[in-house]
Write a structure and sequence with these properties.
three-stranded antiparallel β-sheet
Length: 82
């Protein structure tokens, strides 16, 4: 697996940063975020269950610029995979 790093939340410390990467082999976005609080998770559960293999995470708006860049890279990688 080859991960292309796009950035960490600029307003958090180096050890606890929501971050974004793109898997260059699959074009998947890989996100590190904060675990949501119970109230947020309960609202999400109104739309369906969250399997044990998944999690609801919160990504700060400050990361939108890096996520846009990652999405562009993911689209390019996906096009190359076709």
């Amino acid at each position: 697996m080859s991960l292309l790093f796009f950035g960490k939340d600029p307003d958090t410390d180096e050890d606890h940063c929501p971050s974004v990467w793109v898997d260059e082999e699959t074009a998947d976005l890989v996100l590190q975020g904060w675990k949501t609080d119970r109230a947020t998770e309960e609202k999400c559960l109104a739309f369906g269950p969250v399997p044990d293999t998944e999690a609801v995470i919160r990504i700060p708006a400050r990361l939108v610029e890096q996520i846009r860049k990652a999405c562009d890279a993911a689209e390019r990688s996906a096009a190359e995979l076709r």
